[in-house]
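Two proteins follow. First one:
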Amino acid sequence: MMDRPKDGPLALLLLLLGHMISALEVPLDPKLLEELPQPPTITHQSPKDYIVDPRENIVIHCEAKGKPHPSFSWTRNGMHFDIDKDPKVLMRPGSGTLVMDISGGERSEAYEGIYQCSAHNELGTAVSNSIVIRQSRSPLWSKERISPIIAQKGQSLILHCRPPAGLPPPIIFWMDNNFQRLPQSRRVSQALNGDLYFSNVQPEDSRSDYICYARFPHTQTIQQKQPISVRVLDNKPAEERAPVFMVPSESVSSKMVLRGEVLEMECVADGLPTPAVSWVKRNGEIPSGRASFLNFNKTLRIMDVSEADAGEYRCFAKNRHGSVHHSIRVTVNAAPYWISAPRNLVLAPKEMGIITCRAAGHPKPSIRWLVNGLPIEDAPKDPSRRVEEDTLIFSEVQTGSSAVYQCNASNLYGYLLSNAFVNILAEPPRVLTLPNIIYQVIRNKPALLECVVFGSPVPTITWFKDSRSSMLEGNAYVFHENGALEIHMSQPSNSGKYTCVARNNLGISENHVYLEVKEPTRILRPPEYQVVQRNRDVVFECKAKHDPSLVPTMTWLKDDRELPDDERFRVDSDRLTITDVTESDAGTYTCIMNTTLDQDSASAQLTVVEAPPTPTVIYEQPGVPTDLELTDPGARSVQLTWTPGDEHNSPIKKFLIQYEDALHQSGVWHNLTEVPGTKTTAHLKLSPYVHYSFRVLALNDVGFSHPSMPSRQFRTSPAAPDENPTEVKGHGTEHNNLVITWKPLTPLQANGPGLQYKVMWRQLDMEKDWTSVSVANVSKFVVSGTPTFVPYEVMVQALNDYGPGPKPSAVIGYSGEDFPSAAPGNVRILVLNSTLAEVHWSPVSLESVRGRLQGYKVHYSRERSLHRHNSHQGKQRTEIFSPNKTSGMLPDLLPYSVYSLRVTAFNGRGEGPSSVPQRFETPEGVPGTPSFFKVSAIDLDSLTLEWGPPHERNGRLSGYTFKYQTVNSKNDLGLLEELDLPSNQSSFTLHNLSHSTRYKFYISARTQRGSGPTLTEEAVTILDRAMVSPQVDIATQGWFIGLMSAIALLILILLIICFIKRNKGGKYPVKEKEDAHGDPEIQPMKEDDLTFGEYSDEDHKPLKGSRTPSSGTVKRDGSDDSLVDSGDTQFNEDGSFIGQYSGRSDRDATHDSSEPPSPVNAMNSIV
């Protein structure tokens, strides 16, 4: 029974209505949602203050859902906006989003104004916020002539920036002529208004290039002020002085800031030596978690300002000549923010309900109601509707009175607008749970049978088992609000067919499910402790039982890991055998019997000992203790004595005392305590309401003895619980609930029958009285209808039939989170180079997080390349940043591309709405490798090469860099020649080359950013033009085929002769060569040898930096054989020889005296 304070009839009415509303949630079933009518709901809209880029089309978002799908209309500056009259304005199909096309030169200023979107269907009208469209402006700096500034050493100085006013305001920074930021310090710093302050000037401050820059973030433009020249005179000593404030100039100032915004205060002091600045708050503390001291302590910044930050702040400036302070009086006002935003309401005809709209702010916001976009006082009267300030009360609603209501909360500093519909539905019950589901559960475990239903009015749910004769009821069952049936301790008698029936005044629906209760898996004979000698075998047995309908799996582990991959380990159905045991096999072995529903496990230790050289004394486990006796009984204690068994040549180290609780867990033995092996008596401390039996085990170096026979039963009396549940937590699973969970007490901790839990909660700092409810046989309780993400104090107390447990301590938990309601604003992108960009955003307000902010996600993707030959899109990528970040880097971008980007905040529930998509372009980068590079034609003194443009151009190609050089027979490179070729050229012919010469070629593409990677190729000019004349293909001539056949026959005959001589034991030429030269595998083949040297196919080794040649290029394979022997000789299509050859390997280089250095030289010798 829930204990609630009495708040009067109105509170009771609102509570009753609140329960009605929460009971009519529409399940997120897609099929159901498609069938139900629904008034419009705005799902996405542009921000209230929308600054547009004058270079891009204007897109004003308005998306909505509803059934039927809504139609859309717009107003501009309070008047109907007819988009058909302006051909440059389009509305996206199926959407209310407007697109103003300004690509034809139209000025975006013409579309500035206040826009509002309406989404209509036959059930009502939803409206968007008023969206103010303003064009981003980055005006030019006014021209001025700045005279040089001359200052005496030690004087203070201010360099004024005075940037042009932009929309949004520019970011100010000071740099020199080399675009390097000017160094700042305690003495020299930039103020919030952009001016540069010198507390005292020094000779090193003299320079002529103090330049103030203004960066306009929306258009990514930077403008600079004329350089300021400063000369510091050092012609007399500087007089030291006490501090005087330069900013602020007066002694007392005031500052107003809005709740949730950033408060910045600054104090800049003149003085010599340079003063140190510090801050304090009178009658309060500066919030350490949200406050930071910037600009060398001259600026105090407080993030996410709250009302508690109001008050008087003082800054102090101090040096050795004195100190001075300034007071800043801070007042905090607040634009409206939600306490309880209106929520959609689904009612059945004749039902009651409420919509509340509660907002706070300073000054207090005024609440104004609208219906379908019209002020409620101007709307048609509805007798079922009543307005009570911030609450709409509906009673006896009728079919056809569905509508969308708007709540507007406004004050001097802003407004909030929220839509909430009232949908009147009359729907018979529907069971959404799939039919004939079979639930399987282990005996004595809880079972949960689902029955998800929907209907309007809310259906009542009843459960039946096997037949419809009697409805299920009693303490054995728990009926949940969502229709589920829970059975705490499932027994075989609970198996069967279950029927859930849903009823309302419009109909009835039912569904059948089945429950099967299975027997638990139990290990009957666990493995036992084993001591085995090295090189012997050992067997562990593990026998288990399981439900016959479940498929078991036996798994063995060693020291909680998989068994070694060793054939000595053999696993059978119920045993593990280890043969030829070694010392590394010692450890703990665990057998695990698994089924699809449960498992059981048992472990045993294996000890490996050395085999004794001679027979020794036999050591065994101790004998079984006997003669167990209970004496000196108390309320919670008893004394146990026993007689130890034989030690078996190994002294008893300790006794282990175990107990069985026949009342709660019969047949299961638990460890209670241990006593030294020299004692035979133990004083046992016991728990109430337990039927104890005791047994004793003895332990020596060999292992445990078998258990003793159980003692007589000793029963303790019941009592109130001694402890409360642990691990008490409070958290939300939905945005409007608080789930309180705890670790339940064991039967031993219950201390008596009738165990229950008293669950208590109250909203932290908001409620004085506790709300409580008593539950049994559960470990959680769900509190519904809570505000979103607010702290609660939670307590859980145990009680039984003999009284409550001790007073519990409270823990703090939070109700459920909701998706963030706002997107990060002021998203700005700074492109740093062609592959890296930096994104900045303004943090979301604390109220809009509606939970615990976990961070920000930046989603970005490549939309297209700026090059017309490469425009494919890229996959979306996401970078995640911590919640205290307001900027981050986007790495690995592709150059010369257009990217789109949006930023979201996320909490434990998920992501909030996206920021307005931003687009940015990356500059050019260096291009990729040309797509191909080959030699297409070869002549005596010329070569023609072809190439293709890079696949990744990364910009506009400005040309190609073409280089080439000769390569001699020793792979030495000659003089490198270089040519610049235009970007539209794809081939080039080199003339006046040396004949019969190898060349190496290099080519790379260029953009304005530089050259890309180089692609290489090699080729050889031919020896004689006659060699490329048309010839008959030699491979098709009869004489060539006959010659090859004769050679093959000759080789076969030689092999047969060699085989015959080897069998006769005689020597033959190959054998002689082996004897003369050692290993025949390293001998080359020579014409005057009668033997065949072994051919070695070494790795191909091209020149360093070159690619594997394509068709028509040189191929280096480490062989200097003659033209006839060369396996890589190639011919033209007409059969003529191409001057290609294979380079020499290191091994062949030792035979220069007997072999021609190249096929070209071989041809010269023939000629």
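Second one, unrelated to the first:
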Amino acid sequence: MAVETITPDWEFDRFDDGSTKIHTEVQLKNYVNFLEDYTSQLKGIEDALDESIGDVWDFTLDPIALKLLPYEQSSLLELIKTENKVLNKVITVYAALCSEVKKLKYEVRTTFCNSGVFGVQKDTSMVEGESQIQMGRFISFLQELSCFVSRCFEVVVNLVHQLASLYSSIYEHLGELLVVLMTLDEIMENHGTLKEHWKMYKRLLKSVHHNPSKFEIPEEKLKPFEKLLLKLEGQLLDGMIFQACVEQRFDNPGEGVTVSKNSTFAEEFAHNIRTIFTNVESKLGEPSEIDQRDKYAGVCGLFVLHFHIFRTVDKKLYKALLDVCKKVPAVTLIANIVWFPDTFLVNKVPAAAKVMDRKSMQSLRSMREASLQQRAQALPKDVQSYYVFVTSWMMKMESIMSKEQKSDKFSEDLSSRCNIFVQGILYAYGISTIIKTTMNLYMSMQKPMTKASVKSLCRLVELLKSIEHTFHRRSAVVADSVAHITHQLQSQALAAIATAKKRVISDKKYSEQRLDVLSALVLAENALNGPSTKERRLMVSLALSVGTQMKTFKDEELLPLQLVLKKLDLISELRERVKVQCDCGFLYWHRAVFPIYLDDVYDHAVDAARIHYMFSALRDCVPTMLHAKHLETCDQLLESYDKEIMEVFNEHLLDKLCKEIEKDLRLSVHTHLKLDDRNPFKVGMKDLAHFFSLKPIRFFNRFIDIKAYVTHYLDKTFYNLTTVALHDWATYSEMRSLAMQRYGLMMTEAHLPSQTLEQGLDVLEIMRNIHVFVSRYLYNLNNQIFIERTSNNKHLNTINIRHIANSIRTHGTGIMNTTVNFTYQFLRKKFYIFSQFMYDEHIKSRLIKDIRFFRETKDQTDQKYPFERAEKFNRGIRKLGITPDGQSYLDQFRQLISQIGNAMGYVRMIRSGGLHCCSSAIRFVPDLEDIVNFEELVKEEGLSEETQKAARVLDSVLSDLTSNSAEGTEYFKMLVGVFAPEFRSVKNMHLRNFYMIVPPLTVNFVEHSIGCKEKLNKKNKGGAAFTDDGFAMGVAYILKLLDQYQEFDSLHWFQAVREKYMKEMNAVVKEQNVQATSQDEKLMQTMNLTQKRLDVYLQEFELLYFSLSSARIFFRADKTAAEENQEKKDKEEASRPATSNGTPGGSASSSDTTTK
């Protein structure tokens, strides 16, 4: 319409250029993108949380709890409203009394019983005076209990007065209140420690009374306090609470209430007791039993009360009550408190007990033991049957909770859910009764339990907790179902009441009684037309106690109605009922079973997951402990309990598991040793891997992760043992790998300096015992490795660069210089012996003789030193004498030179190991040429002083590593430089003959080497060796020190050796050709052996020549001392113009410093 009113002048503005549409599309597109993005986020969250997150609740992680119990916000006066004023008053009075009883019962269970049960506790480690202090803290609790008991007495009197005035069916509530008093009596009776400490406290009070000033207490306050204590003792501690209650004066003529003389009331009372008893007895021991045992205790209490009021005994009922003891020998009232009905009835009604014959009284006592024995024998069978029942119930629960509800079968589905919930509570009650009764009977009768019984009872505890866990897991669905089920049950009850109501209305004969019945039915209807609170349900039961009179309901209608109301009670308090029935707080008093249980779990690891249920049961003790009054704070009690359980758990499961896993890994890694028979068919097999698939167990404020505990234990053990024996690192690495494969244990690497299995010695050990090392180890020049000469075991130790590098990494690079210093000290001692040998007249004269001979005959011998001359020298030395083990002086001299060479080889290895270590340490630096200065960078950023200091240290470490890895110290140059001047000095002229002793030494060495190698093929390998390059290193080093490379080379010794052997081999070949025709086999064999021997000798000389040539390279054997000095001078002259101030010798001085 608005468009039509626009004037033609404005039509121009209505031109559509399409911009609005484009803008709309852009916004729509953005919105679509947002929705897609949001949907994908939600999908991600859903996937991460798992689809069942809303249905299944974890029992150990319980941040939110659902409280299903509805609370009544209206008062009783508002709820009880009918047109029948008298009925309103009556129902209100009884409802108020019944509510009061329920409150008192709740209060005693949650507060007084728990505090009483955990009252003053006996502790052997308690210091003197602590018991009195605990008792002092406990007195305030006893005062509160005294007030509570007085209140109970008043309620009992009021109830009896109301019942005497107007007969009603609230006897069960009266019975419940009497059971409360009986429970308190039993707690006090069973608390021996409390009585003991009470006496000690009274004694303390007497000493205070004699000297009040010492304790700073006014005397006038002591008297009232003593009176209070006497009153508390008489009222509570003598176990006469119930007795005092039933012996009260119930008649009150002043108010016009007569009780004891009221015969109608007496009949009504007795009739109600019989009715309740009949209902209770029929259900005892049946599968549908739920709270009949408590009611039975209530009936016994009512019977005693009836006797004390009216002084009459129904012998038939008394006998019937005692006969129930065959079925129910004991009733657990709370925790570990057991009530024996036979003892109670005999003590409280002595008049009736006299009537019973002695035989039947004695049979009652023996019956208890027989019953316990019978229970113990039936335990395995009970466990088996309940195991089947509970597991099938759990399956039904899971299936019915997970399937969707169909609208057409909604009513049937709710009924089946209701039945399953009720069945769960019934199973829980049955199992709980067996456990409590059996355990507490064993305890009260002080009979030992067999291991089989303990295991069976622990299985039942697990089943009990599994029922609770099942309800908890499905909390959300259960909560949803409970509301619907209560509505359905209320509608069924309303339908039944409506039928009865019609029947009452249809009858035209109105009387006052009929009007009362009708009003009661209307009240019941009103109560059911609301939430199923305990007040409304109480009103329904009270209203129906009136409404069921005058045959308003047929028998076939009344039983289903009672069943519906019973179900309504159970479903409305479902969570509370499950919690009470599955509560295992009593286990605190039976902690002794826990070690046996853990041993059983360890032995049957397949179903290790059940341990969660047991810990859940042990956690049930905590809420009751919070009420402990005798300690300063209840935390002390909780801590000691926590500590005790954890110690047992560690001892009987965790530690055993750790040891077993470690043993298994060790035996698996060392299978080659064949330690013992591990055949699973003979010794059995335990799969302990099941323990590692368990979720962490919650206990107190911690989670016990078995997998993490064992992993930590193995990590710690392997680390410590690797530290002690670093050479075992490979074994422990293998065990770590096996732990991962077999048990899924993610273990941490030790990150210790790795050592290899063959490493025998550490650098420190070698350094300290270098004289032993060079004599016991043989050097291999090419592989740069040391091999042990002999060993007592089957293995020879070897030492190579990697071992040295690991040692340097362990001890630090500083050890390298120390090692070279030790080597220098060692060489000094060896060179002293060397000098003495060369100075010996026999040796010196022979050498001078040989030098003269060579100079005179070198032209005839083609400048070569004759081989025969060297052999002659070797033999001549043997004539001078030999050691007891057959060694000549020349052999010992050869060994000395080998040891010097070994020391030099070790120095070379130290240098290589240092370079290896530095290069592995510096490998993380990306570019050695361009290393940033961290200190400057840190200063630029303005970081703290500590950070700057750390950066400075890092820079210095990096510069050290870079310089070390780039250069490496010239240790050989240092060791030559330090000894050479002394060797070449005039006073050591006798050493200059050394080059002439080298040929005989080589002959000696070759003979020794061939002998060692031949021993390798013999059975007795004593003295066998395949390498000894220490000799070549030693000869090269000493020749360098004496600057005699040219003199030695002038002998052309190795050429002479080669020619000598080639000449002999050619002669043998010619001889073989000549003898080939003679066909003399023995001669041919001899010639072959000769040729082979010559080959071996020549090969050994060649090897020695190569080794010596290699060794000479280390000492720059290509230059003489004069040439080296000339080269040094040339360098100095070249560096002169480069100096800043023209001062010569700058580089030479630095070079000298290095040499020093």
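SUMMARY FIELD: Strands lie at 331-334, 337-339, 697-699, 702-704, 777-780, 785-788, 798-799. The CA atoms of residues 76 and 96 lie 8 Å apart.
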